[in-house]
Amino acid sequence: MRQKGQVIVILLLIVIVALSIGLSIVGRTLNEIGSASKSEDSSRAFSAAEAGIERALGQFTSFDQNSSGAVTVLETELQNRSEANVRVNGRLPDLNEALEHPPISKGSFAQFWFVKPNETFSGGNVSCQNNSGPDCYRGSTIDLYFGDSTKDYSGANSLNLPAVEVNVIYLSDRQFKSQRYFFDSYTGSDTTRSNADFLRCTPLSSTDVIKTSTGENRKFYCKRSRTLPVTVQPNQPVLARVKLLYTDYNHPIALKPNGDCGNRCSLPYQANVYTSTGTSGNSIRTLQLFRQESIMPQMFDYALFSAGELKKDYNGSF
User: Fold this and answer.
1) Per-residue DSSP letters for 81-110?
2) The whole model's pTM is what?
3) All structural domains of the chain with their residue ranges
4) C-alpha dist (Å) from residue 148 to 26, 72, 190, 194, 221
5) Distance between CA atoms of 212 and 226, rounded to whole angstroms?
């Protein structure tokens, strides 16, 4: 009897161990299935958000009229248990509002138009007369905001303080001309950053906020105001190209009108923002696209300020 009791105990132990292993395997399998399902839903939600962006780009193409609204991509269209809702915010920037460009990296450009991008130039003059909106910016100065205020710039990171090069293209005496400015937020003693050609910007406090095309209460690290080269019609500033320098961080850049002449002191409409939210199961993915009209390629700046004459050379072969 004693031996039979020992056998029963051993069998019970074996059963308990087997059950524990089995439950562990089942639990791990269920977790993996759940993770795979979540990953699949996340991928479907992301794809749905992309599909929503594509639909909105095809439906809202104008920067002047009827460029705001909403788009829905239904589950029956995607056929993968997902859907997307897109909000299109067009006609940016709003009147007297700063246009904010998404964060750019070192050496990249942000572009801001002072005349509507599809403006015609006849005989060296601009034809916009501001009949129905801010077709041409007539203010005399601008406020430039740049720098990510949330970054740590202490110690060695001080060399990551942003600087910018601003190229203003303007129309004067029926000719296109340019003026360059350099602004830096660094005030240290490092010789590579202590360039006399760079004007220092005004550091902003944590309470200094502005409204931009991105939203309310936007914060930046630096601000610099500048008088534009030419502001008297028919002479006219055309666009500003802002290049980020020195820093290894990505930084937002915003340009704000500075004037009190109503619509005529607003930047022309030149950008749309598409915000697409894709859903699948419990997963939600959001994509945002900043679309600007008539962007000059980066080589434009290097060609514009080349020391030599630009020539197209063609020898009959490629």
Assistant:
1) S-EEEEEEEEEESPTT-BEEEEEE-TT-EE
2) 0.79
3) 38-93+269-306, 101-264
4) 48, 34, 21, 21, 6
5) 18
Instruction: Encode pLDDT of 206-260 as tens digits.
Output: 889 999 998 889 999 999 999 988 877 677 888 999 999 989 999 999 999 887 6
Tokens of 242: 């802002």
Structure tokens at 279: 């859903």
Q: 91-135 pLDDT, tens per residue?
A: 888 888 899 999 999 989 999 999 888 777 766 667 665 455 568
If DSSP codes are grouped into helix, strand and coil, which group holds residue 244?
strand
Please, how many CA atoms are within 13 Å of residue 1, restricted to the half-sphere of its CB? Answer: 0
Q: Which residue intervals of the chain are DSSP H helices?
A: 2-59, 75-78, 299-304
DSSP 3-state percent helix, strand, coil across the chain (nearest 5): 25, 35, 40
Provide Rg for the chain, Cα atoms.
29
C-alpha span between 181 and 230 (Å, rounded): 15
